[in-house]
Amino acid sequence: MQNFELTTLIFLALAVFVAWKLRSVLGQKTGSEQPPADPFARRETPPLRPDQPPAADAKRDNVIRLPGSAQAPAGPAAPQPPTERWTDIAPPGSPIAIGLEAIAKAEPGFDPHAFIGGAKGAYETIVTAFARGDRKTLKSLLAREVYEGFEQAIAERERNGHKAESNFVSIDKAAITGAEVRGRVGQVTVAFVSQLISVTRDAQGAVVDGSTEAVSEVSDMWTFSRQLGSRDPNWLLVATESAA
Q1: Is 130 exposed, middle or buried (0-12, 13-18, 19+ CB in 10 A)?
Q2: pLDDT mean by block of 10 residues, the chain; 244 residues
């Protein structure tokens, strides 16, 4: 019996010693341990600190591009200095150039050359939609105040039983004559010179204004506006003026 008790005490002592060593090496649970990492889990990129440069392969282009705007050139070529851009549109340092640079600063994808192309398309679409009385198209392209003026003219024409037709022969000129940023709103004014055949007929089809053959030169000054940085890429027509 004494030998059995001595052996038991020795084994107990060894067990206590082994348990103590394991605890000292492996530690003990505190309840704040992180769960095992899932190697297949999707990980979000942590936000950069103000003093931390972005990774070389970070995605930089999160700006929604304007219609027809050019993407930033790929490759190592550096962009032209602001004073050397768009010299065919406005002289460096002029109010127009300064306004365009302010828009481009807020919208890195802004390209005035592409803007002029889009403005020409909008000009033709709006004039044609007005002649047809297409209120739906006009509403999507015009600011509220401008749309109300167009809609009143269409309604009066309809009350008189008149129908209008407008056919473009050409758009001879589309030039930016003004650009500025007011708060977060960008505005660009474009001068248009077009060759147009316009005619208005009464209910019987007789011509009451214009001509079915004569080409008229029309000069207009239109101002387009957009909330810079917004998700809506559309520029709306906010002002129209007939050029002298």
Answers
A1: buried
A2: 57 56 44 36 34 35 33 44 75 95 93 95 96 96 96 96 94 97 96 96 92 94 95 93 75
Q: Enumerate the domain spans of the chain.
A: 98-242
State the burial class of residue 34 (Cβ atoms within 10 Å of its Cβ: 0-12, 13-18, 19+). Answer: exposed
Among residues 75, 74, 93, which one has the least CA distance to residue 83? 93
Q: Does an H or E element contain 5, and which?
A: helix 2-26
- The token pair that represents 144 in the structure block: 């509220």
The arrangement of secondary structure in 98-242, i.e. its CATH architecture, is Roll (3.10)
